[in-house]
């Protein structure tokens, strides 16, 4: 394939695939007309592995750039806002259809700018979903796979950024880049790879407010100043706060361990008010539950904790991520599609 | 040396028959003075070379002459020269495979590999690649093909094995990987050398270079104890007459040592033009956070360029520890008020320091063993041990 193959299809789903899937009744819930089980609605091209034996796609099987753009917008607006089914259901559908878009980016050999336009919303979607579904059962949502795809999309986006002269970006594009660089840094909190990348970024990006705050958190994390990390996470905007909060359980367990050494005493106590303020618990009950999990003694009045080096259970796994009130509150205030499509950051 | 092409080739033929690797190496080195000889700049030397030289050395020499040709052109063509040099390496690989149970030819490999890396670097500097690092990465592939032949030579006797050439190549590869920031690729190489039976019998200069790079790698992996060990070995064995290399080693060794609780002497730093670290050490010793941050900021570019920015940032908690020790020395009591620490921190520049954060910092220092004692939250006090409340940092693991 020496020449770029260019799609001509203006529909979300190429005709051949529509025909086949309608005939074979292979329609997804969101592709059926509202309330009717058999009437096809709006179809979106599904992901299929490019494998040996499959015919090379014809131009009419591939969508135009404008159409891909529309597809992404449709998925991240109409479908994401569709409240008929639980979000993990939405996620499965959008994830698969976006993957098909990603495949076409490669097939049609889009250049960096074209790629980024489509890829950036995907990163946002995956990052958001990673948080939104973090409490789901494994059968409903696999965080590992989501992590993998998020990391892959992020790295692809970062490679694109590296190819484009930062001077040539307009303010909007620069903001998008800063935001994604910040996601990468916080998603990979504590890795020297991400930190070293951050150190090498052009000043246009590293000086941007959103990236600088993420960088401060990463440096404090590196230094071991968890206090500043915890304070910083709360101040981040929506998706960044969400991605960073995925580290909270790990951080909390670390703080418990440190405190078990520092406040180690048979008589002395530490008030729950201090701990829940520090560790960003909305409800004291959650704090107490976590303490119980790590085998930290809770005083009878439920108002104080007694730390003992020897009590702390170091063998137990870090708790699963959960939704944090301060993050959820941030999402209440925003119109989600606007964020996912990076119209307003 | 400035003879005809004929003379040059018969010289090579003589060394070849005598199996003299070192002189052959200088015949095809880009650092040797024969490269000034314009008679050797031939675009298609194959015919005449094949007439005089036997395979497999003929291909190597042909490629070398082409490199000279492209470098001798009016407008030097580094990219073409680089391409020919990789061709040359391919022929070297063939030669290595053909000369079984012999290793006198290793110097040829060393020279050609070194020149390849330098040419690749030159091309990168000139921006000849579409992506930065691309040419060096290709060059590393080339070097790897030599490495594989050497590493696989486990049938010949210990004196004749090509495995003795591994470390030289590994060092070349390190130089490439560190330059293009692909440190993860170092791991299999390190494993290959560490598990080699010749680990300690490689030439000392090669061992020094090796230790320098594995020391840096350990530093990146936050394994400071090993970094200290490796870099110290490199420094101890690096000869006096290589001050530039000593300086390179010190750039990494000094901050690692500082993290482990040793402060550098000013005069040593002065000698190697590394006074940045002296400023850092002074601030560190005083526990002066403001000064410390200021020094880092002032030398930010230097620290980032050397790849030690994250390391020096890590010293922050030691600054805190030293400050707290001073508070303890002034107060002369074993029950220290945490608000005293808070006030001290605010005084040295952490103006937005809250009492909660002060608790966290002290707690962390206790956890790391840098302070011996415990905190009483209700009394807002740190109770330190009567013996050695601030143990010397080099004793804290």
Textual characterization of the structure:
The complex is a heterodimer of chains A (345) and B (397). Chain A has 345 residues and is mainly alpha-helical. Chain A has a domain at 248-320. Chain A is 57% helix and 2% strand. Chain A has a three-stranded antiparallel β-sheet with strand order 1-3-2. In chain A, helix 2 (65-81) packs antiparallel against helix 3 and helix 5 (143-163) crosses helix 6 (171-187). Chain A starts with 14 loop residues before the first helix and ends in a 5-residue tail after the last helix. By secondary structure, chain B is mainly α. Chain B has three domains: 5-176; 203-314, no CATH class; 321-395, Orthogonal Bundle (Arc Repressor Mutant, subunit A), CATH 1.10.10.10. Chain B contains 20 helices and three strands. Chain B has helices at 5-17, 21-27, 46-52, 57-72, 78-98, 106-125, 134-152, 166-179, 186-194, 204-220, 224-237, 243-259, 266-271, 275-286, 289-298, 300-306, 309-313, 316-331, 338-347, 355-367, and strands spanning 335-337, 373-376, 381-384. Chain B has a three-stranded antiparallel β-sheet with strand order 1-3-2. In chain B, helix 6 (106-125) packs antiparallel against helix 7, helix 10 (204-220) runs antiparallel to helix 11 and helix 11 (224-237) runs antiparallel to helix 12 (243-259). The model of chain B has no long low-confidence stretch (mean pLDDT 91). The interface between A and B is medium-sized, with 30 and 28 residues.
Number of helical segments with 4 or more residues of chain A: 16
Whole-number mean pLDDT of chain B: 91
Q: Report, as a whole number of angstroms, the end-to-end distance of chain A.
A: 39 Å
Adjacency order of strands in the biggest sheet of chain A: 1-3-2
Question: Quaternary status of these chains?
Answer: heterodimer
Question: Topology as H/E string of chain A?
Answer: HHHHHHHHHHHHEHHEEHH
Percent in strands of chain B: under 5%
- N-to-C CA distance of chain B: 60 Å
Q: Give the overall shape of chain A, derived from the CA principal axes.
A: globular
Beta-strand percent range of chain A: under 5%
Low-confidence regions of chain B: none
Q: Count of DSSP E strands of chain A?
A: 3
Strand neighbour order, sheet with most strands of chain B: 1-3-2
Indicate the structural class of chain B: mainly alpha
The residue-averaged pLDDT of chain A reads 92
Pfam families (chain A): SAC3_GANP
InterPro entries (chain A): SAC3/GANP/THP3 (IPR045107), SAC3/GANP/THP3_conserved (IPR005062)
Domain SAC3/GANP/THP3 conserved (chain A): 12-299
GO biological process, one term (chain A): spindle assembly
């Amino acid at each position: 394939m020496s020449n770029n193959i260019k799609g001509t299809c203006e529909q979300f789903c190429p005709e051949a695939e529509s025909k086949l899937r309608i005939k074979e009744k292979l329609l997804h819930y969101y592709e059926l007309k509202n309330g009717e089980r058999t009437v096809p609605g709006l179809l979106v091209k599904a992901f299929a592995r490019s494998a040996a034996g499959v015919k090379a796609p014809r131009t009419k099987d591939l969508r135009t750039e404008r159409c891909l753009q529309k597809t992404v917008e449709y998925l991240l607006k109409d479908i994401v806002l569709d409240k008929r089914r639980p979000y993990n259901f939405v996620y499965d559908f959008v994830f698969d259809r976006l993957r098909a878009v990603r495949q076409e980016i490669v097939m049609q050999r889009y250049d960096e700018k074209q790629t980024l336009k489509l890829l950036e919303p995907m990163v946002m979607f995956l990052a958001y979903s990673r948080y939104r579904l973090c409490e789901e059962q494994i059968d409903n949502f696999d965080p590992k796979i989501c992590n993998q795809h998020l990391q892959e999309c992020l790295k692809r986006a970062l490679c694109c950024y590296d190819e484009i002269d930062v001077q040539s970006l307009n303010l909007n594009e620069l903001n998008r880049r800063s935001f994604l660089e910040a996601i990468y840094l916080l998603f990979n909190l504590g890795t020297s790879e991400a930190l070293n990348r951050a150190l090498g970024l052009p000043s246009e990006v590293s000086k941007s407010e959103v990236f600088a705050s993420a960088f401060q958190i990463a440096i404090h994390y590196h230094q071991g100043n968890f206090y500043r990390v915890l304070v910083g996470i709360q101040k981040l905007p929506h998706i960044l706060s969400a991605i960073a909060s995925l580290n909270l359980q790990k951080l909390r367990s670390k703080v418990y361990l440190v405190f078990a050494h520092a406040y180690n005493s048979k008589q002395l106590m530490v008030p729950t008010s201090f701990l829940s303020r520090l560790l960003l618990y909305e409800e004291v009950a959650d704090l107490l539950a976590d303490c119980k999990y790590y085998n930290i003694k809770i005083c009878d009045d439920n108002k104080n904790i007694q730390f003992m080096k020897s009590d702390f259970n170091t063998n137990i796994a870090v708790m699963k991520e959960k939704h944090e009130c301060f993050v959820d509150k941030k999402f209440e205030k925003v119109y989600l599609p606007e964020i996912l499509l990076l119209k307003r950051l | 040396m400035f003879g005809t092409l004929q003379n040059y080739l018969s010289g090579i033929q003589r060394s070849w028959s005598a199996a003299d690797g070192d002189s052959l190496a200088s015949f095809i080195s880009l650092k040797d003075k024969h490269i000034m000889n314009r008679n050797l700049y031939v675009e298609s030397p194959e015919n005449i070379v094949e007439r005089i030289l036997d395979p497999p050395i003929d291909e190597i020499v042909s490629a070398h002459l082409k490199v000279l040709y492209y470098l001798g052109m009016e407008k030097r063509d580094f990219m073409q020269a680089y391409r020919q040099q990789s061709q040359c390496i391919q022929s070297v690989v063939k030669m290595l495979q053909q000369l079984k149970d012999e290793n006198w030819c290793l110097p040829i490999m060393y020279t050609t590999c070194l020149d390849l890396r330098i040419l690749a670097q030159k091309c990168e500097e000139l921006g000849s690649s579409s992506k930065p690092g691309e040419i060096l990465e290709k060059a590393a592939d080339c070097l790897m093909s030599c490495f594989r032949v050497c590493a696989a030579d486990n049938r010949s006797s210990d004196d004749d094995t090509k495995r003795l050439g591994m470390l030289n190549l590994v060092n070349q590869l390190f130089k490439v990987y560190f330059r293009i920031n692909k440190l993860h690729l170092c791991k299999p190489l390190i494993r290959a050398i560490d598990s080699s039976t010749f680990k300690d019998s490689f030439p000392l200069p090669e061992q020094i270079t090796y230790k320098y790079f594995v020391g840096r790698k350990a530093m990146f992996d936050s394994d400071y104890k090993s970094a200290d060990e490796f870099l110290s070995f490199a420094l101890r064995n690096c000869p006096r007459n290589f001050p530039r290399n000593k300086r390179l080693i010190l750039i990494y060794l000094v901050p690692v040592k500082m993290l482990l609780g040793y402060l550098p002497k000013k005069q040593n730093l002065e000698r190697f033009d590394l006074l940045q670290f002296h400023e850092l050490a002074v601030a560190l010793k005083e526990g002066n956070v403001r000064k410390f941050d200021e020094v880092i900021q002032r030398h930010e570019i230097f620290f980032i360029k050397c790849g030690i920015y994250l390391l020096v940032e890590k010293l922050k908690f030691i600054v805190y520890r030293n400050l707290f020790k001073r508070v303890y020395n002034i107060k002369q009591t074993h029950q220290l008020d945490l608000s005293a620490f808070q006030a001290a921190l605010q005084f040295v520049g952490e103006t937005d320091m809250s009492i909660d954060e002060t608790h966290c910092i002290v707690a962390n220092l206790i956890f790391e063993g840098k302070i011996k004692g415990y905190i009483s939250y209700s009394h807002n006090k740190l109770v330190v041990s009567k013996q050695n409340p601030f143990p010397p940092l080099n004793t804290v693991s």
